[in-house]
Structure formats: structure tokens, C-alpha cells
Amino acid sequence: MKPGRTLAAALAEAVVVLDGGLSNQLEAQGCDLSDDLWSARLLADDPRQIEAAHTAYVRAGAQVLITSSYQATFEGFARRGVAREQAAELLARSVDLARSAGDAAQREVWVAASVGPYGAMLADGSEYRGRYGLSVPELERFHRPRIEALAAAGPDVLALETVPDTDEAEALLRAVEGCGVPVWLSYSIVGERTRAGQELMAAFALAAGREQVIAVGVNCCEPGDADRAVELAAAVTGKPVVVYPNSGERWDAAQGAWRGGVTYDPARVRDWLASGARLVGGCCRVGPGQIEELAALATSAGGERPG
Predict the structure, then answer these.
(1) By the 8 A CB rule, do 285 and 249 touch?
(2) Per residue in 149-161, pLDDT tens?
(3) Which pTM does this prediction carry?
(4) What phi and psi values does residue 18 have, to the nearest 5 degrees?
């Protein structure tokens, strides 16, 4: 059902569970994502599959659905011959599909419109490196039109996610000013640094004192790296922490394949909650089964603030 509270109000009261990876669920449904637009291609070609993937996570216990707009950009669609007006409609559709899946639930489900990094549009793994050679104003100009289109579609929050460096974080925070929608800011990290190598304390500090930012944290990282990051995000910003690491497997951009083993363990949620996490879930390769287990553990923890 459509929420009767803001997501910020919900986070002040209890733990809220995110969904998991959208692309892996789509692949489990038989979708071919071997395309530069990745899951965003289905916004035009087979939107029912996207809604079905969202529904799978609702059934698993997710309370927040992240839209399929991570890799959806005006520039990316233009390369496929999609006119700007139609691209705006597809961005809005990503919000509508998630809302439709959430409205069918018997509990509140919030919709987070995904705003992926510039590197995601390049489809070459650049989002795992950052430092694209663009200035902060150039990145702001890139992000603003998509943010405006997504905000106009009426999501509950914008997910500024998988951010690899502080330049892009600053650009995104500038670009969302005045859009009228709250945001969360989530970095992709290695150890205690951003993917571009900046110290996390300085990266998180960009969000401190910004009322529009309702949560700050990390995603699409090694599960083990998330543990310390939650502590740092809470200490630096005093805000609720968002954490949704990937499965632990590593993306090989050159080969277009995942490597390594699964290290994601839903039981980690106990430590995340104790350190200040309030918005918890999974990213790439984390599916409905793991989210269902995570949701059960989060519920058993009671959702109360530590100490």
C-alpha cells in the first residue's frame, strides 16, 4: 500500500528493509540483460518483468523498492534512438512500476528512484573507479535532468547510489537541491575508502548537516567492508545509515561476468543495527531469499535504536 508516513519518519521509529539486486531477479525470471542499458532496456521492451521482479521482493518482505532507473539516462537512451520525451516517460515508468508493485502489498512500501553514477551510463565498469575526468559542475549538469524527471514522477525518495567518489557526491547533492524529494547518499567502497580512494570520513561528511539527506551509507561493496562503514557513517553524520552490500562476488567488466564466492550473510544485520543502520538490504546478486531472511532478522531485532 502507499505509505502514510515519510520514509524519514519510518526510519525514526524502526528498521526499514530494502530490496535486493534487481538485475539478478530479472535474470532469474529469464530476462536477457546483455545490453548497455542493462535492466533499463526492459522499461521499453518488457515492463511487466520489472514489476514482477519488484513484486518478488515485496513478497520477500522488502519495504522499499529501488526503481530500474540506475542505468537509465537521457544520453544512454539517445544512443538507442530514443527521443528525449520518450526517455522522460521511461524514467517516470520506472517509478510507476515500483509503485504498482508496492500498492498491491498489505503494508507500507516506499519507492526509491535510483540515480546511478555517471559511470553506469558508460557501461564499461567506470562506476567502480570514478574520477571520470569531469568537473563537479559538468557532473551536476549531467545528473540534473534525470533527477528532475524522476522527481516529477513522485517517488518517496531518490537513491543517490553506488557513488564512487566525492566529486560525484558533491555534484549529486547540488543537483537534487530544490527538487522537492528527500534523498539518501550511498557510496561504493573498498575498505575504508571510496572506490576512487578518498577517506570515507571525508566522503560521509559531505552529507552532514543537509536536511534533504535522510540517510547515508554504502552499497554495492563487499559485505565485510560494510561493517566498518556503517560505524563511520553514523559517527560522522549522526543520520540513519543505509547499507546494502552485494553478494561478495566481484564484477569483471572486461569479461562481463561475476567472479568469486558469496559472502553476503543476512545475520550481519544484527551488527549493522547495533552500529546505527536503519535502512538495510542487498545489492547485486542478493535475491529475494536472502532479503526474506534479512527481514525476519530485522523484525526479531525489534527495530529499536541502540542505547
Answers:
(1) yes
(2) 999 999 999 999 9
(3) 0.95
(4) -85, 170
